[in-house]
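Annex B. Sample input.
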Amino acid sequence: MESSNLFLLMLTFGAVAFYIGRSRSLLVAKPLGGIRHLHSLPNYYGLNALLWCALPSLIILVLWLIFDEPVINSVIMGSLPADIAPASLADYNLLLNKISNLADGIMSSKGQPASLIAVADSMAGLRVISQWSLTALCLILAVIGLYWGWYKIAAEFRARQSVEKVMENLLLGCACLAIFTTVGIVFSVLFESIQFFRSVPFFDFVFGLDWSPQTAIREDQVGSSGSFGAVPLFVGTLLISAVAMFVAVPIGLMSAIYLAEYSGKTVRTYAKPALEVLAGVPTVVYGFFAALTVAPFLRDLGADFGLTISSESALAAGLVMGVMIIPFISSLADDVITAVPQTMRDGSLAMGATHSETVRRVVIPAALPGIVAGVMLAISRAIGETMIVVMAAGLAAKLTANPLESVTTVTVQIVTLLTGDQEFDSPKTLAAFALGLMLFTVTLLLNIFALHIVKKYREQYE
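Annex B, continued. Sample output.
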């Protein structure tokens, strides 16, 4: 049975278990005089039966799907005949993909060696056996869990404590999974970055002024030694982000102040959702708008004033990116301004301050932690944007502080380096992980700074 169908079947079993558990608890309570004689409400008995029925099967299903393919691939590649055994890691991956395509029927078996076809048939057989074994195991566990959940139902059974304990452990598991995922991402990027820095010195990468990651494929090839100075990328990222924040911060903050402090109820009802619609527009649409509308307009406008503006410029990308991240600042700032206690406003007005003075000297300082958090989130969003930069700012790694010229960013180069079939053993490809590590470090520092500001001013105003 397919994994998706098996998942739906386990959910159906869980629903049946809930109904059976709840119904049995009502039957147990009826001769005792009602559900008030049960330790827990009937729904908790149903939830307990549901958890015993569905949860073990779902856990097995997830673990099986995680380890199923690696185990089958390992068994298949370990049983290869000597005449087709791979000689290198690249040959290993290529051969594994070929066998998998043959087993799935994607690739025709005509003209393929008989030994390779036999191995592909073995892989297909192992996959069938794996699917049926998983189906049988999940069904057995579901039936056993359903019986156990039904058997445990009694008037004195503490079903609520049992359900809450399981849910507490599930929440703990989700929290640990999130932490381990973050740690895994950090170590995977760090490991590949260390591999890169073994070929390219760290200081040459961080302080180098020339970015040209093309490297020689053959030993006798010349003219492609590669230059991995990332300063042009850092400068381009900061330049576009600065233009974006120059647009987004004033507009977002002022719109939030107006909506929270000055606008009427009718205006706020329609203006706030209309402003937040900007956050739902796909970035590729913003990219089209920047490339086809904003960039030509800026180029023609610059020509009228005697300025030379590139058809792909940091200014065009930054302006459109600023419009895109306005809702990040406006929405968060509006929420924190609205959350400022009304007593602070009343006290300021009672002391003779005007409305504008109250907003400027009381409300904004009190809401500053949330405003700073919104601005930091917007900066992180601007630094990590890719599509708008690709379409409006270009791919040229120029070391310039002129927003009228074409530049590129760290994220664009990461995408460029990892596009297509790549081998993760050359400095060109590993440079993407080093750039990712730098991006992660900058984002982490921004978050630490934001937390420091939030903590400092929250202690002051609470």
